[in-house]
Amino acid sequence: LGKAGSVYASGGFGKLSMGDVDSAALAAIGHVDGVGLTGLGDLNEGMFIATGGGNGEFEEYPHFSVYDREVTGDPSILYEYSTGNLFLAASATQREYTYLDGFSDPWGGEAFALGAAYTKGGYKFAAGYERMKDVSPGVNSNTTDNLMLGADATFGAVTVKARYGQGTSEFEDSTADDQDNDQWALSTTYAANALAL
Length: 197
Known about the structure:
Order of helices and strands: EEHHHEEEEEEEE
Shape: globular
Structural class: mainly beta
Number of strands: 10
Radius of gyration: 18 Å
Strand order of the largest sheet: 1-2-3-4-5-6-7-8-9-10
Largest sheet: 10 strands, antiparallel
Number of helices: 3
Distance between the termini: 40 Å
């Protein structure tokens, strides 16, 4: 349940969504603009680890890159609140134990995220923090922290978007090495009527 589609309730208190929803960090920051057909590679998408079902953990460590897709699964919960120029969000995924290929013990993961954005005029500044923990009872665990920053600026028909992220993974009770990962992205879009370059 809750792995395809979502439901929500909204009002003066904000918006509460459950199901296949984004993480709070992704909701606040978003991606840079993409080029090409949507869904073919999606190379404009940053790495957000607290989205239910996930888009993988950090690819530089392929042994753990398969976990997030299956372990920190949906349904997820996302709370969003806007007041004036300020946007705030918080989210969490549901722990779901599953057996992965090559492992005799089940793995379960959960993730939490916070996000905030401030928009004024043609400018937007946003930040997000995510923490994910994968656990296999009696085996080991892996904790990943991810900090994302974003800035957008619109000058007439031109929009510039920049993103930067820094992630750190720590492996407990394991011979695996801890790792640090950086990511960045930049896009510039010129829009004229129905045309975007």
